[in-house]
């Protein structure tokens, strides 16, 4: 029984690590305005400051996923961002909807497993 719990804990750590890398990279990309990020936000109809807000939130959430006391709250916050991303992509007809859907599902799983009791 202890082996199952240990394996579950290791799997959650791997998921947290992958998500943390993804969101730290995404946050830095938005804050630095790398690639076509500024043009994408403008095309979606969002003001310039919103890119910085989302970038900071993704960076903070990515770091929070690695901090034991903040995992639940970081996962919830990032889940809200992913739900907004899904809405934006569907509303604008973008084809990349599966990416935030998978991230949202993983974040929901992490939040559920690491929820405060």
Task: Give a description of the structure.
The protein has 117 residues and is mainly alpha-helical. 79% of the residues lie in helices and 0% in strands. It has five helices and no strands. The mean pLDDT is 94.
Short summary of the structure?
With 117 residues, the protein is mostly helical. The protein has helices at 2-32, 37-43, 48-64, 71-92, 98-113.
Main β-sheet description: none
For the residues shown, what is the average pLDDT?
94
Overall shape: it is elongated
Terminal residue distance? 21 Å
Radius of gyration: 15 Å
Estimate percent helicity: over 70%
* Number of strand elements: 0
Descriptive tags:
mainly alpha; 5 helices; 0% strand
How do the helices and strands line up, and which of them pair or pack?
Elements: H1 2-32, H2 37-43, H3 48-64, H4 71-92, H5 98-113
